[in-house]
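Box 3.1 A note on notation
Throughout this textbook, protein chains are presented in two layers. The first layer is the amino acid sequence; the second is a token string describing backbone geometry. Keep the layers aligned when reading.
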Amino acid sequence: MISKYWYCSRAQQVAIALLSLVLASPSDAQQSATVVGTRNKLTITGSLTLYPLVTDLARRFEQSHPGAKIDVQPGGSTKAQADVRSGAADIGMMPRALRSSDQDLFAFPIARDGIAVLINTDNAVRGINTVQLAGVITGRISNWKALGDRDAAISLALREEREGSTDMILEHLKLQRSQITRHKPITTSADAIKFVANTPNGISLASIGEAERSARNGVPIKLLAYNGVPAATRTIQNHLYGLSRPMTLITRRLPEGLQKDFIEYATSTQVTDLQLKYGFVPYE
């Protein structure tokens, strides 16, 4: 099924999409057209992590498609799903793969990213493993001494938005939200980076691409290795890093018209430079 594109290679995705579009009935096409709305305008909503990349994709797409207008709005992954399902958006932005509960949606991965576990550069810890990360998030590990640093209480900050990095980590660790220990609520990767930079005993989660850019620019943060693998775009590209995820565009029906044109553009090699600009890895 197309709703499980995230299991396929890019070549397989393209083949499935073309076959599905050929097999689509006239009634399917009419239904899809009602979602797309006007032929020269698209509304895209969702993930704050994907927002900068998709905004740049939209501006470049408009330049090569005179008269096209792409309205890109941030708002979070939950909003992406709700807007696409209601028809308020033509395309949603999701920082993860679809789940079994999302079989009413179609997914088109456009890049890969990873979630980094961040600490301040003053902290001596260099890596963290699955058991330790679960311990920090649940509060079973509450002092840096248990991780090899100074005797100091751990300060945790996590994103409150559902469907984002926190939920992905909880799924990975097989934890429930009710098991999360007391923490500072934040909204974006930028918030996580700022928190860790200003909190010597802090720890948080952020997009690897955004965190790497911040570290290169001198922000005092450190990306911890996870289970012995460095948190870096190169280890995402090599499929070695355990906390990687697809950056995905979603639709309610098979894309057509301008909607289809934009998705084909966003999944093409024409946009590799923009993917790299934001620290993402081309989807393969």
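Confidence is low (pLDDT under 50) at residues 1-37. The longest strand covers residues 106-120.
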